[in-house]
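Minimal example, chain plus iron/sulfur cluster.
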Amino acid sequence: MKLKLKIWRQAGPNVAGKLVEYAADHVSPDMSFLEMLDVVNEGLIKQGQDAIAFDSDCREGICGMCSLVVNGIPHGPDRGTTVCQLHMRRFKDGDTVTIEPWRAKAFPVVKDLVVDRSAFDRIIAAGGYVSVNAGGAPYGNAILVPKAIAETAMDSAACIACGACVAACKNASAHLFMSAKISQLSLLPQGQPERRARVTAMIAQADSEGFGSCSNEGECEAVCPKEIPISNIARMTREYWRAQFSSR
Ligand code: SF4
Ligand code: FES
């Protein structure tokens, strides 16, 4: 296949960026989207040009590093899939593909398609942990947790902190990301001692980072590669109000 690519190029955080056109020839339908970009980069390097910067690590949908908006959709057109697992067979010969970084005030562009997501680390550092000694696996198994609760907590723990939910939201809200961690820990016995302080601290940190609020439109859920449900945001809101009233 031959494709026309329009890729966001930006030399650094404080300079203007723009979409630049590139031709991608000899694209195999079996290539992954990131392999296609690797081939484009090899061509640029051979011509002595600056390679296009983009993030990736595992390329297996596990680490949450890949972060491209493809034709306006964070992680591209396949639902429940990271962009590293998107394949070129999803496109047709002659297609034009626009590739941009996550766009949010709290995720400043570092270079080209790479954004700084350390704001998520600071939210987790504010409260997304348990400080009780949970012991090893045998001790964990000694605390009985009803199966339905264990499964809901496990589904919430599937969040890979990629930030696609923020990129999709018109308010650049981090609510789906925060609600996944808050749900996971508020459902489990180990998360109870810090339950009220956690939700208050994480939401305060998100506000100070410049993330917006939630207006319940569901774009976050639609693009989440781990299909974290928006019902977690309702649970987080209940946790938040319970914490505010109980602290008075
Ligand atoms: S909730 Fe989904 S989209 Fe948001 S950071 Fe977690 S895995 Fe990524
Ligand atoms: S590179 Fe690890 S999830 Fe995509």
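The first helix runs from residue 33 to 46. The CA atoms of residues 4 and 226 lie 30 Å apart.
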